[in-house]
Specification:
The complex is a heterodimer. Chain A is mainly beta. Chain A is 0% helix and 51% strand. Chain A contains no helices and 13 strands. Helix content of chain B is 0%, strand content 53%. Classes of the chains: A mainly beta, B mainly beta. Chains A and B meet through strand 6, strand 7 and strand 12 of A and strand 4, strand 5 and strand 10 of B.
Chain lengths: 114, 118
């Protein structure tokens, strides 16, 4: 099974500053058949279900603000919030779907306001 | 609007059973694969089961295989999860989610809480 490791576990960022979350997979999630990275990011606010932000490592879901961006390839990925807003306080999860339909989530990164 | 509404959670004793339901609306249910994901209190997300749009392909996480059964009724726009031989470690909020094939989950329900305790 693919293991997804996120870092840091939590971070505090000032409003308007950049937040960077890392996700590392135990094996490559880059599929040679289509040259796509099978990696998604979700945001979960307190008391709410997760919300899909990004898939194929860098494709924003419809309606997601462009301050959210994803990057990386193979085993190392990053979610960046370019200018943190108060409403971005949440836990963020990466998820691989290389082993689809089986999927694995990272442990989550909690983002707070400094 | 896409809506997924789970029901059926509750308090059950170890070894007991529950049947969770997920009512879908706002999209062509029979065209989408569906998944169940759970979240233990204060913990992260754990995928537990998948069912294809027709129901012909099913998969489970090792942690629930042989105890949980996923099914669907496309005529009723409903997804189900039968939970048997429940253990304390199955205590969690159970979410149903629409699968934007391949397994990217683009809509989630609000979840239903299952508590396994004596």
């Amino acid at each position: 099974d693919i293991v997804m490791t996120q870092s840091p576990d939590s971070l505090a960022v000032s409003l308007g500053e950049r937040a960077t979350i890392n996700c590392k997979s135990s094996q490559s999630v880059l599929h040679s058949s289509n040259n796509k990275n099978y990696l998604a990011w979700y945001q979960q606010k307190p008391g709410q279900p997760p919300k899909l932000l990004i898939y194929w490592a860098s494709t924003r879901e419809s309606g997601v603000p462009d301050r959210f961006s994803g990057s990386g390839s193979g085993t190392d990925f990053t979610l960046t919030i370019s200018s943190l807003q108060a409403e971005d306080v949440a836990v963020y999860y990466c998820q691989e779907y290389y082993s689809t339909p089986r999927i694995t989530f990272g442990g989550g990164t909690k983002v707070e306001i400094k | 609007d896409v809506q997924l509404v789970e029901s059926g959670g509750g308090l059950v004793q170890p070894g007991g059973s529950l049947r969770l339901s997920c009512a879908a609306s706002g999209f062509t249910f029979s065209s989408y694969s569906m998944d169940w994901v759970r979240q233990a209190p204060g913990k992260g997300l754990e995928w537990i089961s998948y069912i294809s749009s027709s129901g012909s392909t099913i998969d489970y996480a090792d942690s629930v295989k042989g105890r949980f059964t996923i099914s669907r009724d496309n005529a009723q726009n409903s997804l189900y999860l039968q939970l048997n031989s429940l253990r304390a470690e199955d205590t969690a909020v159970y979410y149903c989610a629409r699968d934007k094939n391949p397994t990217v989950l683009d809509y989630w329900g609000q979840g239903t809480l299952v508590t396994v305790s004596s």
